[in-house]
Amino acid sequence: MRRRRVPPRRRGEPESTEEVERFVGGLATGIATVTMAIDPDVVVVGGGLSRAGDALLEPLRRAVWGAIPLPIRPSIIASELGAESVVLGAVALAYVESAHRVYGIADVAEPHIDVAGARALAERVAQS
User: In the prediction, which pLDDT does 90 show?
Assistant: First the structure.
């Protein structure tokens, strides 16, 4: 499956703005639906989407808040873990589950994830 990249948003390029708005509209519908059901204080955008920064977050905030007919306005922020969030979460879960299932150790605390270290490692790997 080939993924389409959202073109960079530049001032004066209506095609890229329209593409971002279409993409954000679909995302906003799902976020608004979940937000109305559970009323979170914060919605964290993770994975590769977090790298888009305000080019994605600003229109996403407007679209989500506009789609919610209730006085609910959660903060919508980018994950500090960036694109590595999924992998780091999987590693933390595997650590806890293996301690329980393989070694029979119950109530193992999730490992501390060094965000800065994880980012630095990901950058080094990407450069090599």
Answer: 87
How many residues are there in the chain? 128
> Is residue 110 left, alpha or beta, with left meaning phi > 0 and alpha meaning psi from -120 to 50?
beta
What is the rounded distance in angstroms from the CA atom of residue 103 to the CA atom of residue 82? 32
**Which residues touch 27 (CB under 8 Å, ≥6 apart)?**
60, 63
Kindly provide the b/e burial profile for residues 61-98, where b requires at least 16 CB atoms within 10 angstroms of the residue's own CB.
Answer: bebbeebbeeeeebebebbebbbbbeebeeeeeeebee
Among 23, 38, 45, 36, residue whose Cα is nearest residue 65: 36
Cβ–Cβ < 8 Å for 83, 51? yes
Q: Rounded CA gap, 50 and 35, in Å?
A: 19
Instruction: Identify the band that residue 80 occupies on the pLDDT scale cut at 50, 70 and 90.
Output: confident
Dihedral angle at the C-alpha atoms of 111, 116, 58, 17, nearest 10 degrees? -110
Give how far Cα 7 sits from Cα of 40, 55, 78, 103, Å: 30, 11, 19, 48
